[in-house]
């Protein structure tokens, strides 16, 4: 198990390979469709300091506001990452992001972006939102809550020992691509019988 702490250096991100299991500690930022569109089209500076050397999490959290005005995460499961394929490579380059967490993997544009910028794609366990929320130790701040709503807002959070697996690396490795090719080959064999 590799322990990673944000900010993550480019050298560290490039040392990671497909199949590495990591425990992530530090600052991560949740971002989904509206956030990615905004980051590409308007390049806002308010999120820049939080993303430098850090991690974007494709997550639609369930969040409660506590009596003292602070927030806490109730559920924090990964969402399908492929929706961000048109934006992700540009966002990683613009904001110097070193890792993206989600589920389901991403396509060739993001794979090229990982190689170019020195970053990795991390897979989190789907269907385990309430367990993953226990790894969120605090909420630092939130942006665009009113405009985007809770699932789409930028939540800047602290996590401790957040478990992930590297499924796309900066060397062109992709577990998603490998499994797709392997299962396609098996399906073809079965269809020919």
TrEMBL record:
Keyword hit for Nucleotidyltransferase: no
Any one GO molecular-function label of the UniProt entry: hydro-lyase activity
InterPro entries per record: Fe-S_hydro-lyase_TtdB-typ_cat (IPR004647), Fe-S_hydroAse_TtdB_cat_sf (IPR036660)
Keyword Metal-binding: no
UniProt keyword annotations, A-Z: Lyase
Domain spans labelled Fe-S hydro-lyase tartrate dehydratase beta-type catalytic: 2-178
Top-rank lineage group of the source organism: Bacteria
One Pfam family, short name: Fumerase_C
Similarity-based family: Belongs to the class-I fumarase family.
Protein name, entry field: Fumarate hydrolyase
Organism: Geovibrio thiophilus
């Amino acid at each position: 198990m590799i322990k990673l702490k944000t900010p993550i250096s480019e050298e560290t991100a490039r040392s990671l390979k497909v199949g590495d299991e990591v425990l992530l500690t530090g600052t991560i930022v949740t971002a989904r469709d509206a956030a990615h569109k905004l980051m590409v089209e308007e390049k806002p500076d308010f999120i820049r300091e939080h993303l430098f050397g850090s991690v974007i999490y494709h997550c639609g959290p369930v969040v409660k506001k506590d009596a003292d005005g602070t927030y806490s995460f109730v559920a924090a499961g990964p969402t399908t990452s492929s929706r961000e394929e048109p934006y992700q490579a540009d966002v990683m380059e613009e904001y110097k992001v070193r890792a993206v967490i989600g589920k389901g993997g991403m396509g060739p544009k993001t794979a090229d972006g990982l190689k170019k910028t020195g970053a990795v794609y991390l897979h989190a366990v789907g269907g385990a939102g309430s367990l993953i929320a226990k790894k969120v130790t605090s909420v630092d701040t939130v942006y665009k809550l009113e405009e985007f709503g809770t699932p789409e807002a930028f939540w800047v959070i602290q996590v401790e020992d957040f478990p992930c697996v590297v499924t796309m690396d900066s060397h062109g490795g992709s577990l998603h691509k490998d499994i797709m090719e392997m299962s396609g080959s098996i399906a073809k064999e079965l269809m020919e019988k």
